[in-house]
Write a structure and sequence with these properties.
The chain is an alpha+beta fold. It has 5 domains: about 1-135, 2-Layer Sandwich (N Utilization Substance Protein A, Chain:P, domain 4); about 140-205, Nucleic acid-binding proteins (OB fold (Dihydrolipoamide Acetyltransferase, E2P), Beta Barrel); about 205-280, K homology (KH) domain (GMP Synthetase, Chain A, domain 3), CATH 3.30.300; about 285-345, K homology (KH) domain (GMP Synthetase, Chain A, domain 3, 2-Layer Sandwich); about 360-419, Orthogonal Bundle (DNA polymerase, domain 1). The chain has 15 helices and 15 strands. A 5-stranded antiparallel beta sheet has the order 7-6-5-8-9. Helix 5 (about 205-215) packs antiparallel against helix 8 (about 260-270). The protein starts with a helix and ends with a helix.
Length: about 425
């Protein structure tokens, strides 16, 4: 009866989806080998053969011994007397190998129960380790799963192999609404062993999820022609993506958005209507901040590189656009550029006098100097004077004497106006 139950156990084990045949054979052999070693109180590797047939759900065990003269027996585990051997097969002679089947009944009821329990434990441990290693390699990859249970704090989903994963509330987009049987997409965020069992965490709020969606939709990103420099998100609300092209013939923003927004629209739908701003990356901080605050139009940007802060000036009607609904636009622009951004109306500037375009000083300042100032992000007199001469000399790569002459000319303009 116990033998039948053990064979029945094999039949159950061979159906396990997450264990291949070779691994199953190795587990069963290891468990039996351990039991036999205990039974014979020695290592049985050299005289016991274990043959496991996982497909059929059965096994055979053979005890191999060498035939010796009756009075030459020294090791009963590895040798058999000739008189005993001929009882098994009359043709046996000294020096022959005798393989005698070990019946499962000889193990005893307690050994059989222990075998069954050990098998179940080993298979369970193997499956858990298999799941852990499989998903450890998938961290950062998109997976598609089916919703099994919707709880208050998490959603439990299963993959195509029936493995359970968790999508915690904090990793769900606020507008996500799912019910049992729905298909859900996200990335594998982490895998941890909790009390000996693997816990796989999915995420739909991670920046990496948006990155993977872009890679799937935009061939130029997948092929490496366009690089994603940085992504920041407020899940379900807004996202900003800085992209750069290494091929001058490719417009990175246009490639990501697609014809009539075809590429980006599918991603927006997946992210529950999340507004996605795609921005052309630049190493010019003033220009980068200006682009990051789009769609607002900026009049002037004054940087403080020491504390990574930026004062941004604009017309009254542009302030609400710069801040954005819920403050998300300015918040994400700050994260994207790495600057703490403060927005000011032009009327709030310290100096309320009218500013002057640098090109109007072309009769007093060489054009190449004006071009250098514009490249550093200053295109008006006040935007230059908002810095120290030393800062301008360093950032515009100009001689300090040249910069001091520029400052003298620009200051004279406002002093003349005051008079």
């Amino acid at each position: 009866m116990e033998n039948y139950k053990l064979v029945e156990t094999f039949s159950e084990f061979k159906e396990f989806k997450n264990i291949d045949r070779e691994a199953m054979m190795r587990i069963i052999e290891d468990v039996f080998r351990g039991t036999l070693n205990k039974k014979y109180d020695t290592d049985t590797e050299d005289f016991i053969d274990i043959i496991v047939n996982v497909d059929k759900g059965d096994f055979e065990i053979y005890h191999n011994r060498t035939v010796v003269e009756d009075d030459a027996l020294e090791d009963p585990l590895r040798q058999i007397k000739l008189s005993d051997a001929i009882l098994i097969e009359p043709d046996f002679e000294v020096g022959d190998e005798v393989s005698e089947e070990v019946k499962i009944e000889s193990f005893g009821r307690r050994d059989i129960l222990a075998l069954r329990q050990n098998l179940q434990t080993k298979v369970s441990e193997y499956e858990k380790e298999n799941i852990f290693q499989k998903y450890k390699e998938k961290i950062g990859d998109i997976i598609t799963a089916e919703v099994m249970h919707v709880w208050k704090r998490e959603i439990i989903v299963t993959d195509e192999e029936g493995i359970e994963l968790s999508l915690p509330y904090a990793e769900q987009i606020p507008n996500d609404i799912y019910k049992k049987g729905d298909t859900i997409r996200g990335i594998v965020k982490s895998v941890e062993n909790v009390n000996g069992s693997p816990v796989v965490i999915m995420s739909r709020t991670s920046e990496i999820f948006l990155q993977r969606l872009l890679e799937a939709e935009v061939p130029e990103i997948y092929d490496g022609l366009i690089t994603i420099k940085k992504i920041v998100r407020e899940p379900g609300q807004r996202a900003k993506i800085a992209v750069e092209s290494y091929d001058d013939r490719i417009d990175p923003v246009g490639a990501c958005v697609g014809m009539k927004g075809a590429r980006i629209h599918g991603i927006v739908r997946e992210l529950r209507g999340e507004n996605i701003d795609v921005i052309n990356y630049t190493t010019n901080p003033v220009l980068f901040i200006t682009r990051a605050l789009s769609p607002a139009k900026i009049t002037n940007v004054v940087l403080n590189d020491e504390i990574h802060a930026a004062n941004v000036y604009m017309e009254n009607d542009q302030v609400s656009l710069a801040i954005g609904k819920g403050g998300y636009n300015i918040k994400l622009a700050g994260k994207l550029t790495g600057y703490e951004i403060d927005v000011y109306r032009n009327s709030e500037a310290n100096n309320t006098e009218e500013d002057v375009d640098l090109q109007e000083f072309s009769d007093e300042i060489d054009q190449w100097v004006i071009d250098a100032l514009i490249r550093m992000g200053c295109d008006t007199a006040k935007s230059v004077l908002a810095h120290t001469p030393e800062e301008v000399a360093t950032r515009a790569d100009l001689e300090i004497e040249t910069v001091k002459d520029v400052f003298r000319i620009l200051k004279a303009e406002f002093e003349d106006d005051a008079e």
